[in-house]
Here is the input.
Amino acid sequence: MGVSPREEKQKLVRFLCGSDDDALELTRLKELKEAVVKAIDKLPEKQRLVISLYYLKELTMEETGKILGVTLSRVSQIHTLAITCLRHMLQK
Here is the structure.
């Protein structure tokens, strides 16, 4: 079985925050969140929807596909493309 979106978010937050809650770490986390939001806003609509439904609404990819009227395979492809685009934008 795969990792749920909630578990993925928790892992990401633990990784980003580390064990220190000092001001510098919190500032870095805030800046990263802002950069991610801006990058997501630049994605094409369908990619934004997949990211939003999967990570924010915590729907499964199958549920996301039903909402968008596409197959599970297509949702997976859109998700992979969105993540690749986000990584590219955030590396700049």
Observations:
- Helices lie at 5-17, 23-42, 45-56, 61-68, 72-91.
